[in-house]
Amino acid sequence: MTIYCLGSVNADHFYAVPHIPEPGETLAALELTTGLGGKGANQSVAAAKAGAQVIHIGGVGPGSEWIFERLESYGVDTRHIATLDVPTGHAIINVAEDGENAIVILAGANGAQSEDRIAAALQDAGAGDVLLIQNETNCQVEAARVAREKGVEVVYSAAPFDAEAVRAILPATDMLLLNEVEAAQLEKALEQSLFSLPVARIVVTLGAKGARWIDTRSGDSWEVAGTRVEAVDTTGAGDTFAGYLAAALHEGMKPEEAMAFAGKASALKVTRHGTANAIPMRAEVEAFSP
């Protein structure tokens, strides 16, 4: 069984700053580092580090050999990442001393996905497999529909948040992942409760407080507590949770167990600087005791 991930692949440029800049403010960065990122790549890496077989579907620009090498070193299958004649996506990430961040993203090759390439990548997918999707590429709805027709479970992270993008993909989604702010924004935009949405399962991450599971069919909802740590960089925390959660559920963990496991992975990640490189391995999560 395989986790497929249609998602962004970025070169992340991290600027360490004293605080997140105010409008019109110019700040001197304390440090610059560059690494692999993008919500899609992060989730693929997280799922692979959690022990799942992962195939990434996406695109990069010329000169991106290092990205293929990095993903493969983490255990991600890159055969369906196309090299396109547009720039690789990238992110400018300001990380403050308290761990908070502010991010600006250029889509680049992430916005040049092809329905034909996606269909080819999912050709061998079937029941028991999972498709992870985020909101940083095009062809999200088309990919979800192809996956659904093959019996593949579709898991959608509604980030970066766009209410209309969520509305479009919900009918082809099996599980919706949101953070607390996104959940409130979605309820306001659609003028309806999460419990009334046309998706079977919803997981709302609550930061250090943990996560909430919602079963819209039964109306049941419950929470798992978070793991409190001293955060140094919250970038990629949600992606770590999503990848670990998908992998844990995929291998048969019960929802509360899977959410607790994903929460520990996310908590461990925020104690480290970086994105994909900072996502912990499964053995580290299992041994983690804050």
CATH fold field value of the domain at 3-8 and 39-57 and 115-287: UDP-N-acetylmuramoyl-L-alanine:D-glutamate ligase
The coarse overall form would be: globular
Q: What letter string, H or E per element, gives the SSE order?
A: EEEHEHEEEHEHEHEHEEEHHH
Low-confidence stretches: none
Tell me, what is the CATH class of the domain at 3-8 and 39-57 and 115-287?
Answer: Alpha Beta
Strand content: 25-35%
Main sheet: strands, sense, barrel: 9 strands, mixed
Rounded to an integer, what's the Rg over CA atoms? 18 Å
Q: How many strands? A: 13
Overall average residue pLDDT: 95
Structural class: alpha/beta
Ends distance: 32 Å
State the CATH architecture of the domain at 3-8 and 39-57 and 115-287: 3-Layer(aba) Sandwich
Count up the helices.
9
Please describe what this structure looks like.
The protein has 290 residues and is an alpha/beta fold. The protein has a domain at 3-8 and 39-57 and 115-287: 3-Layer(aba) Sandwich (UDP-N-acetylmuramoyl-L-alanine:D-glutamate ligase). Helices cover 31% and strands 27% of the residues. The protein is built from 9 helices and 13 strands. The strands form 2 sheets. Strands 5-4-1-8-9-10-11-12-13 form a 9-stranded mixed beta sheet, with helices on both faces. Helix 2 links the parallel strand 4 (54-60) and strand 5. The protein is globular, with a radius of gyration of 18 Å.
Task: Throw out a few tags for this protein.
single chain; UDP-N-acetylmuramoyl-L-alanine:D-glutamate ligase; 290 residues; alpha/beta; nine-stranded mixed beta sheet; 27% strand; 9 helices; four-stranded mixed beta sheet
